[in-house]
Write a structure and sequence with these properties.
Elements lengths: L2 E4 L5 H12 L3 E3 L11 H10 L7 E4 L14 H29 L2 E6 L12 H21 L4 E8 L5 H6 L2 H10 L8 H12 L10 E4 L7
Parallel strand pairs: 1-2, 1-3, 3-4, 4-5, 5-6
The structure holds NADP nicotinamide-adenine-dinucleotide phosphate.
């Protein structure tokens, strides 16, 4: 049975992705924040050490956060926290588990980027930096790991109906956003899960190093 590690599996896109993998017969490891706190160096180190003999076939670096502030209002804490969660933690998890994937000569990794790594909007400086950064990780990992049959991609979700979106937008703003999206609605988390699953499945045999934007046409306008 193939084994997948998914971060941020408690809700939103991560939860839908965990459900998709489970329904397709994968063994899903989706640690809670208590088991793996991605902004805590020691927690990541302990988690990697605890699972050092585990062969994960798939890693989905999904957990992320998005604090929106224009440049003068960004705090040091926000910079450090978002960078730790959205960029540094995925690098450390790949570093921790790529060795076993290489031994197995099989692996699939999806890093979750964002529409804000494709187009921009005021207030997204740090978030966009981390999400563009994670695609840099994808680029390098794709070329470094391809000889071992490990495929690495970034999925960039557009506006998706999750707690993150509800926290950052009022219901009126969500209504307004829907009108700006060619598909005339936000995405459901399950729609992201389908794309993530395909990229991580055995059906994907050659697609690597890509940034796949799933935004209902938003960035094409
Ligand atoms: P969400 O509903 O806010 O859920 C975030 C997940 O990350 C939760 O499971 C949360 O766990 C986990 N998490 C946060 N901080 C953590 C930490 N320090 N350690 C471990 N886990 C932590 O997010 P979402 O909307 O599903 O977004 C998922 C991914 O998609 C993120 O990378 C986000 O940037 C990206 N994205 C989302 C949208 C969108 O419209 N929603 C658009 C573009 C990109 P807890 O339950 O413990 O808090």
């Amino acid at each position: 049975m193939r084994k997948v590690l998914i971060t941020g599996g408690s809700r939103g896109i991560g939860k839908a992705t965990a459900e998709k993998f489970r329904s397709c017969g994968y063994e899903v490891e989706a640690p809670t924040r208590q088991e793996l706190n991605l902004t805590d160096k020691a927690s990541i180190a302990a988690y990697v050490e605890k699972h050092r003999d585990t062969y994960f076939d798939v890693i989905v670096n999904n957990a992320g956060s998005n604090d929106i502030h224009e440049i003068e209002d960004i705090t040091d804490e926000e910079i450090e926290q978002m960078t730790a969660l959205n960029l540094i933690a995925p690098i450390k998890l790949i570093r921790g588990f790529a060795g076993k994937m290489k031994e197995n000569r099989y692996g699939r990794i999806v890093n979750i980027g964002s529409i804000w790594a494709v187009v921009s909007k005021p207030g997204r400086c740090v978030y966009s930096a981390t999400k563009n950064g994670i695609h840099g990780v994808t680029n390098t990992m794709a070329v470094e790991l391809a000889p071992y049959n490990i495929l690495v991609n970034t999925v960039c979700p557009g506006f998706t109906m999750t707690e993150m979106t509800k926290k950052n937008n009022t219901p009126e703003q969500i209504e307004e956003l829907s009108r700006e999206i060619p598909m005339q609605r936000l995405a459901e988390p399950g729609e992201m899960a389908e794309v993530i699953y395909f990229l991580c499945s055995e059906q994907n045999t050659y697609l690597t190093g890509q940034k796949i934007t799933v935004d209902g046409g938003f960035s094409e306008k």
